[in-house]
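If your schedule permits, I should be very grateful for your opinion on a structural question. I have a record of one protein: its chain in single-letter code and its fold written as discrete structure tokens. Would you kindly read the sequence against the tokens and tell me how you understand this chain to fold? Thank you for your consideration; the sequence and its tokens are set out here.


***
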Amino acid sequence: MNTATLNTKSDFVTEKLSTKNEFIDTLKRKNLYWISQASGWSLFVIVNLLIISSFEALPLNRVFLWILLGVIGLFFTHLYRFYIRKENWANLPLRKITPRILIASFVVGLIIFIPVYTFGYLLHVERESQHLIASIISGILNLTSIVLVWSLIYFAIHFFENSKKAEIETLIFEAAVKDFELKTLKAQLNPHFMFNAMNSIRALIEEDPKNAKDAITKLSNLMRYTLKIERTETVPLSEELRTIQDYLDLEKIRFEERLNYKICSTPDADRIEIPPMMVQTLVENGIKHGISKITQGGEVNVDAMVTGSNLIIEIRNSGKFDEDALKNSRGFGISNTKHRLSLLYGENASLSLTNENNNSVLTKLIIPLGGLKQ
């Protein structure tokens, strides 16, 4: 059986399961609706019968009429719901839906009143003839208010469900965008890093085979690291610093005495989880835009420490920070690092580049210890 057939069968099974789940959800919603309808109208009838019985005796024909009112009310509010769904009122703005609800509540209340009044006449339910018109108007208004309350409850529940559904869809969309952007950034960073590392050893193959062999070993370590980070969002700082040391060793082979470096970190900082390749990208940026442009070369110093509730990483490199030149550069290390920080930590993390003096650039990275943004 080939892969295409397996994929087709898998898609078919997934579609069937999705359809089954949708059917179950629909069935549950229908059951909940009918339970709510029956419970609501039953409670309305029972409460009214209890109130009336506390003041006067209730003949059977009057009790039967109240029960009939509950059944008729349930039936016509169900038809009212069918009309609401058909006309898609739930998606209308408030200024349009308000008059519709008021008018519909009066109409449905009147429709319910007519058969109830007719059955009351047939069942010989006593009415005071001198107040007949007032009684009819009062009955219509009472039923209108009941339908209005029913409408408000129905639309409130519907609005709550829609808002929750929209919120969930927004969160799913944001999570998907976040995941896509992080993977895109990581995919950009990895080739960018590897091409620079391979350029560092290309010239050594003929001139210095031994150093070239060492460089290939270090490059294999780096490739192993990049394969590992495809499966994780964070790594211990100690692993990142080892990768930086391998990278700087490769660059030192290329730059020879023009490049010197020093890496310092405290034990508590080494244990902190950080986004992979982030510090390495900043170090690479310092070499590319700083040391490589200086004839006599320079230094790169990496210092990591924990201060309060933040991990502070400071990268000092020889050179001068030129913001306009960096913007015009085709590289994407700094902009992507800022983007990754924003996606992962929100406003709790920061990255800044400043000129400490005429020949030193300070790159300061602040990462909160609390972990990734939820």
Notes: The chain is about 70% helix and 15% strand. The chain has two domains: 3-170, 203-368. The first helix runs from residue 3 to 53. Residues 190 and 227 are 9 Å apart (CA to CA).
